[in-house]
Amino acid sequence: MNKGFKTVETSANVEIENVYNPEDHYTKKEVMITMRDGIKLHTTIYSPKDTTKDYPILMKRTPYSCRPYGEDAFSSRLGPNKYLMEEGNIMVYQDVRGRWNSEGVYDNMRAYIPNKTGNQIDEASDTYDSIEWLVNNVENNNGKVGTYGISYPGFYATYSLLDSHPALKAVSPQACIGDFFFDDFIHNGAFLLSYWRATSVFGYMKDQPTKEAWYNFPDIGTEDQHQFFLDHMPLSKLNAFYDSTNVFMEQIKTHVTYDDFWKSRGIIQHLKDIKPATMIVGGLFDAEDLYGPFNTYKSIEENSNNYNTVVFGPWSHGDWARTSERQVVGNIHFGDELSDDFQKNVETKFFNHFLKGEASGETGLPEAQMFNTGTKQWQSFNTWPPENTTKHNYYLQQEELLTRSLNNVQQSSDFVSDPKKPVPYTEDIKVGFTPRKFMTDDQRFASRRPDVLTFETEILENDVTLAGDIMAKLKVSTTGTAADWIVKVIDVFPADTKNTDDVQDHLKLSNYHMMVRSEVLRGRFRNSLSKPEPFVPNEITDVILKLQDVFHTFKKGHKIQVQIQSTFFPYIDANPQTYVDNIFEATEADFQKQTHKVYNDSSIEFQILSN
To answer: Is the pTM of this model over 0.85?
Structure first.
């Protein structure tokens, strides 16, 4: 049997499967690295057994644990992907301060301290101190370090760019959190109720290093998440499941505006004069972190002169690091071997160029590698958004029309929004965190509701490609004093579209309404995220809502559709529609039906790519 490969028994015979066994090729060591203030961080080091050459260090810092613990317990996969594992790199994992087997006090999205003095610490200093120890104490390292991570570890990868160690040469923040007021738990002031259970992961503190979980998820006693949250409206009813020891939930409940607490924890504003090479990676159907990777790339691009590239594929959260042969999000199949191709020909190439090569000359990678989710093809650009785009306004007209021309006679479309009977964000019944599939879900169920306004173009005679962000420029009014505004951009498929094997049994792709992008703005923040204000009943008011970037071709024969609604439940908590200073303290009496109007001089601004 070939050394390093596992024997796999089948019912018919014994065969050798190409499964790489890290234990045959790596040694494992666990150390506690002392930070400048004396706190020790648990660090796991996997080093290649072949010591005839030197290797780069690839490091991931995580709040999610370095498990399995113990020098005789090996992870089945090391590093960002199998290719970097199999060709040999020193792989390092670290429990960040205050998490799992590390000492210290955890601070969720710890604020960066510029110009630190003495023993002041933040995640940048912890990363610097860790790299300093590694390059001076780990044998057979070549003096070059790369950092990477997905989601929260992606945030720590971004953080490594600040006050970066001279040995840090390549960094890949992936699905990286950029600011908790726009990623994961809050979107433009609206609380993402689907993440409520996840607050326990970050909210409960520990006072000693531990190798076992010290937090629990609340038992909600049902598999129907929609009904559970309806039964626990207003939000104060959820206090029965958490007390003040859930520090993060308390922070969310008390910091309900974009105040200094949230601003100080954002990292986007600090990304200036970055030196290491960066490759930002994200999924165009990531329900958790779209703001972070797009704005991380753009901020570095605008404020630094380093090597900076971006990759966005047809992925949900972290799909690019998985091994699925077919890339499917929800009911939509986008292609095969897309993640493996990224790992082999993009990610590995990036790290090898800057960590194993001389880091001179061209990498062979484009500035922006983007997947067109309409044509289902990769395209490369010298900038993102592409230079050859122009902005076009599509107006929300009477008779449910989305048109390039505006009727100058003022008209409006209205709907009654009842927060006690909110519009679901998916037809699925699920308990858990945000389901991945809803980002491409069929929206026919919503378009048929009276509390959802639907506007769509005529059947397209030519392809229309959107490349960049989307701006919803609404003119609205409400009979109440508070309202949320949710905008969805949808691709309506032709009637003759055939099903694939990936479609749910009860659905057909014939006339499928595929969601391309959606976003919410809590209306009180329409003028300022820091200074909320009520609506004046029945007064026409501007509401501007930015939707994160897309790269999507609405093909000839399809239609572009826009839906406007005021609830998106329980992805987002229901707005009572009566203005209260803190929605977490709203009473049942505050939840009232209101009539909302959208006026026909409202428009959706698309960035359209020229042919």
So the answer is: yes
Q: Measure the CA dihedral 192/198/201/203, to 10°.
A: 40
Q: DSSP E strands: which ranges in 151-264?
A: 168-174, 186-187, 190-191
Beta-strand relationship, 308-313 and 368-372: parallel
273-326 pLDDT, tens digit per residue, is 999 999 999 999 999 999 999 999 999 999 999 999 999 999 999 999 999 999
Name which of 328, 320, 323, 374 is nearest 494 in CA terms. 374
508-564 tens-digit pLDDT: 999 999 999 999 999 999 999 999 999 999 999 999 999 999 999 999 999 999 999
pLDDT of residue 17 exceeding 70: no
109 within 8 A of 156, measured Cβ to Cβ: no
C-beta of residue 347 within 8 angstroms of C-beta of residue 521:
no
Q: How far is CA 441 from the centre of its chain?
A: 17
> What's the rounded Cα separation, in Å, for the pair 290 and 263?
18
Q: Which two tokens stand for residue 555?
A: 């093909």
Asked if 522 contacts 484 with a C-beta cutoff of 8 angstroms, the reply is yes
What is the crossing angle of helices 291-303 and 152-159, to 10°?
10
The DSSP bridge pattern shows strands 401-403 and 389-397 to be antiparallel
Instruction: Give the count of beta carbons closer than 10 Å to the beta carbon of residue 134.
Output: 22
For residue range 452-464, what is the model confidence (pLDDT) as tens digits?
999 999 999 999 9
The whole-chain average pLDDT of the chain stands at: 94
Closest CA to 126 of 32, 207, 29: 32
- At 265 the three-state DSSP class reads helix
What string of DSSP letters covers 337-350?
Answer: SHHHHHIIIIIHHH
Q: Is the peptide bond before 56 cis (omega within 30 degrees of 0)?
A: no
The pLDDT of residue 363 is 81
Residue 353 CA neighbour count, 13 Å, CB half: 20
